[in-house]
Amino acid sequence: KMENKVVEEKEVDMITLITPYKMGNFLLCYRVVLAPLIRQRSYGNIPQSHAILYYSQRTTKGGLLIGEATVISESGIGYKDVHGIWTKEQVEAWKPIVNAIHAKGGIFFFSQIWHAGRGSNKDFQPNEQDPVSCTDKLLIPQIRPDGLDDEHFTSPRRLTTNEIPQFVNEFRLAAKNAIEAGFDGVEIHKANGYLIDQFVKDQINDRNDKYGGS
């Protein structure tokens, strides 16, 4: 005869999306975050005033917004009309957008900084030069979110060991510019096959120097 065993379920505290969260120096009123969404409406890579309405419509007191991926330098452009933050003009264009969000009260606004690396082509590069990467392997096109597969990439130029610190510095300067523009913090885009991700992925990074994959 088998004895009946009663398994007591340990009570688990339920954490809801509207539970406050302490993130470093920031106290969020809830746990829903606006993720970065590239809209390609920054004509000439200059943030436009219509972004004030876009972000304001998604702003709630005590929340966190992460701005759309913002390019750190001219060589980092991978798409047409994306935000930039490497020039004084771009920094000044961001300020009224950030100020408008903060004016709604208790809102935290982060900038996501980004470099496309080999996820680009000559059309977006200064002087139609080859895009840069950790490798010289061509990026193979895949289906885009809109269902099309007509993206064309240019074979990248492999960065030299001495060039790489320049790009590290560009990220540093972009972060500094973001804070000058009034952002509360900075997120570094390291996913989706862009420049930093190219260095991290051992299927892509075929270097044999100190920046090589393993």
Would you kindly provide a written description of the structure presented here, covering whatever features stand out?
By secondary structure, the chain is α/β, with parallel strands linked by helices. The protein has a single domain, classed as TIM Barrel, CATH 3.20.20. It is 21% helix and 13% strand. Strands 3, 4, 5, 6 and 9 form a 5-stranded parallel β-sheet that branches. A two-stranded antiparallel ribbon has the order 1-2. Helix 1 (50-56) runs parallel beside helix 2 (88-102) and helix 2 (88-102) packs across helix 3. The protein is globular. It starts with 20 loop residues before the first strand and ends in a 14-residue tail after the last helix. The model has no long low-confidence stretch (mean pLDDT 91).
SSE order and pairing:
Elements (H helix, E strand, L loop, with lengths): L20 E3 L2 E3 L4 E2 L15 H7 L7 E3 L3 E2 L16 H15 L5 E7 L17 E2 L23 E2 L5 H18 L3 E4 L6 H6 L14
Parallel strand pairs: 3-4, 4-6, 5-6, 6-9, 7-8
Antiparallel strand pairs: 1-2
Helix pairs in contact: 1-2, 2-3
